[in-house]
Amino acid sequence: MQGSLVHTNIVIKPFMNMKSLSIHRLVSPVRNYLTSLVCLFVLLGGTGHLLSAYGQAGSAAVVFLKIEPDSRSAGMGNAGVALADNASAMFWNPAGLAYQQGTEFGLTHSNWLPEFNADLFYEYFMAKKDFPGIGTFGAHVTYLFLGEHEGRDGQNNPTGTFRSYDLAVGLSYGVKLTETFAIGTSLRFIYSNLAPNTSVEGQETKAGVVGAFDISALYRTRPFTMGSTMGQFSAGFNLANMGPEVQYSDSDQADPIPTNIRFGYAFSVDFDEFNKLTFVNDFNKDLIRVNANGEADPFYQAIFSSWSPIEVRTNAVQDDEAEFETLSVFNQLTIGLGLEYWYNNLFALRSGYFYEHPDNGNRKFMTLGAGIRYNIIGVDFSYIYAIEEESPLANTMRFSLLLNLNR
Residues 130-152: pLDDT tens digits? Predict the structure, then answer.
């Protein structure tokens, strides 16, 4: 193994044995581990060993796009595609903007992977405004700081320090086609500054730059009577992050971005004027297909070709000693379940559960959350209680601030 990235007392080395190693291959473990949390690395003797299964997002770049930015839905098992009733709909389901009125701003902050004490953090800024007769527009900025690193050359000599971060800036739009059905879209510019202007085995690296777009829809019934209570049902999907591959060196060393589809439903019950309960359920699947030659299908093909069983390696051993398991399409899905209770539209309590198959990343955790609304101000909080031991997600907290100028 040739190069390495060093951050505080953590050393990450590539586990691929290649004659030519570009920077996106070098930092791929960092990128996937710190943002999608699919692969868990334990660093023994300065060598990275892959202990968890190779998750479905393991072959994608800029997977920070999949980090859930909204503390409200994050407290409900990372489920919100059919809820999408505030400015964070730009992430969950842009079509949800169509049902919203007024102007709203929001900010989410999280110290990312606190278990590592590595000074990583995540920020998400969002804003939306409706234009009667036209629809609702939104804008968002996503920023993930991946720390300061010490670069090394092929002979393990220091080459200086650099800061790594991922950034996305986007615009969204949602419009109603009928009273109960809406469509939406998002466009985003992505800048991935992992290790620019660094030479790795003769190849000059650069920041990855790429564009992506979403297509979404949301159906929401009119409130209906259920005995002495009122109910409302909604269902939606968001086909997100469609775009070309991102390059960190040359076109032969490009990675797909994390195209994925999220779909699900929500059901709300108003027991009276003070008490409301909402149940949400999301399913999410990455739409990435890598063939036997290690080449990824273009996104417009992968949204169809990725719906088939796949074989995943379940150990870190290469070649003849590698162990594989067949993963069905259903087991490639992640599942989020959540509950939210509101009292008088002022105070909320939330809980949820998130599940990912053991051979597909093995993320399993419970979530807790709370929220308050007073006048134009809203504050939300979420907390992850990891079920598996030594989870990098353990004790992750998110804090969101909302300013709703329509109140």
Answer: 999 999 999 999 999 988 777 76
Round to whole Å and give the CA distance between 202 and 94. Answer: 43
8 A C-beta contact, residue 387 and residue 356? no
Parse the chain into domains and list their residue ranges. 5-404
Under 8 Å CB-to-CB from 228, ≥6 apart: which residues? Answer: none
Superfamily the domain 5-404 falls into: monomeric porin ompg (2.40.160.40)
Question: Cα dihedral angle (292, 242, 191, 66), rounded to 10 degrees?
Answer: -90
pLDDT tens, residue by residue, 218-269:
999 999 999 889 999 999 999 999 999 988 876 567 889 999 999 999 999 9
| Nearest CA-CA partner of 7 in 43, 39, 36, 38 | 43
Q: Does pTM top 0.85 for this prediction?
A: no
Residue 333: name the closest of 282, 401, 275 by CA.
Answer: 282
CB 151 within 8 A of CB 5: yes
Query: How is residue 25 annotated by DSSP?
Result: H
Sequence length of the chain is 407
